Amino acid sequence: LKNFLSIRSFLLLLLSCIAAKLSLCFSTIPSSLLTLSLDGHLNFDEVQHVAKDFGNQYQLLPFAVLHPKTVTDIAITIKHVWQMGPHSELTVAARGHGHSLQGQAQAYRGVVVNMECLQSPIMQVHGGKFPYVDVSGGELWINILRESMKYGLAPKSWTDYLHLTVGGTLSNAGISGQAFRHGPQISNVHQLEVITGKGEVVRCSETQNEDLFHSVLGGLGQFGIITQARISLEPAPDKVKWIRLLYSDFNTFTRDQEHLISSENTFDYVEGFVIINRTGLLNNWRSSFSPQDPLQASQFESGGRTLFCLEVAKYFNLGQTDSIIEEVERLLSPLNYISSTLFLSEVSYIDFLDRVHISEVKLRSKGLWEVPHPWLNLLIPRSKVHRFAEEVFGNILTDTSNGPILIYPVKKSKWDNRTSVSIPEEDIFYLVAFLSSAVPSSTGTDGLDHILYQNKRILDFCESAHLGVKQYLPHYTRQEDWKTHFGPRWEAFVRRKSAYDPLRILAPGQRIFQKAV
Ligand code: FAD
């Protein structure tokens, strides 16, 4: 009997705990959300997966995940939150493919909109003199590539990785090796459909609601949820000559990069990366790249030096196989790379653009994809990039790096200064991306703490040396840092927020504005 009583009281205690927990949950989930009439649905149970992102450092649990079937579902939900007024703490975050780094697509105790569920409009490619494609804001770029290629067309400007959504990259900028010619992805959009923080569905373009159009591009999700975009297309090539060249001198490397992006008749893609203490790298390339001169290349020794690799690509069609070799030789002839280090590869256009996915598959199979990614992306004015390199590659990161370090120039003239993105004040600036992966629970130089410490050293140096650097995919936790980030554009940013999302409902994970409760 004694045992029975103690088991019974234990079970009662357990039940009362569960009841208390449930009542806590239900008392905090705004019950009015349950009353919304939607074509899709709100899920209150499986919310953990949207409290995670590629960065793997932040986990903010929402109350609910909206799986919209239609644009109206998203509009109804936002309008409902708007009508709850300033005293509700509820916020809404659009989640594209969740490849943010510091919780930017999360909403603590809010509603996360799973944009990939939005299947309307059906993707539609339009040919003619100025071809374009209409896509949903939750569409992945890889799907847009595949669909437009059926018509011999493709978007002009890319990111290095295509398993990202249109809404996610347009909220930042979308930069890759084509940006020097076409500008970032935000310079290649004709029209958007946006749901503002008041739940209004608005079409906007250069000529219609133009302030909203420019606000949303590079707007970090602050002014509206992009539900549809019209993306500019061009004829897609069949193949790509993909070339890597090494330099030991930073000045020569950047001079050649700048020469290439300044000429009209040049490569179609120009990037570059830094190689720190990686003697084995040349061997790794052999699978896809062949040295032009195998004997000389095999004798090349990096000697532990920091090297700089220029990466270029030239597109061509199958009928042009001979002339493209001459063309590439002509473009390479003025460059001053280490002559034994010319490596070539030839791949299909789709394999070239989707190249990072091939690495993803390999890393996933080794359990190395879902690790913390303390990435740091910077935009550095051309006049300061040498000072930056001297300190960062010569002093802060001398022994090792924990992932690729990209470095390449882009031209400011290809960016529209009416958009929301904040960039350096010089005609040419460099994207420098430290794409680090941390080894979980390591306390060594490959651990999260060490990498975050190195990132901080880099940022502190940029600040103390007054380099005029802007963060790309910016992350700040204090509003004064956001003010500094936007500089003279801060007031316009705040004005736009008051106009399109006055209750500060949207994209709380960016931590720019707090909902006033
Ligand atoms: P999410 O992470 O889901 O969202 C990002 C932000 O946009 C959030 O604030 C979210 O609320 C908001 N948002 C999402 N969808 C919408 C929408 N429809 N309307 C309004 N706001 C929305 N970037 C480059 O520029 N160039 C690169 O080469 C590049 N390479 C990358 C490679 C990898 C492996 C990864 C992981 C990222 C890379 N990025 C690159 C960064 C990438 O562009 C951004 O992280 C982008 O935000 C990710 O898109 P997403 O769909 O995952 O967006």
Automatic annotation (TrEMBL):
UniProt keyword list: FAD, Flavoprotein, Glycoprotein, Oxidoreductase, Signal
This enzyme's EC code(s): 1.5.99.12
GO terms of molecular function: cytokinin dehydrogenase activity; FAD binding
UniProt xrefs under InterPro entries: Cytok_DH_C_sf, Cytokinin_DH_FAD/cytokin-bd, FAD-bd_PCMH, FAD-bd_PCMH-like_sf, FAD-bd_PCMH_sub1, FAD-bd_PCMH_sub2, FAD-linked_Oxase-like_C, FAD-linked_Oxidoreductases_BP
Cofactor entry: FAD
Start and end residues of each FAD-binding PCMH-type domain: 58-236
Reaction catalysed by this enzyme: N(6)-dimethylallyladenine + A + H2O = 3-methyl-2-butenal + adenine + AH2
A GO biological process held by the record: cytokinin metabolic process
Family (UniProt): Belongs to the oxygen-dependent FAD-linked oxidoreductase family.
PANTHER family associated with the record: CYTOKININ DEHYDROGENASE 6 (PTHR13878:SF53), GULONOLACTONE OXIDASE (PTHR13878)
Name of the protein: cytokinin dehydrogenase
Organism of provenance: Rhodamnia argentea
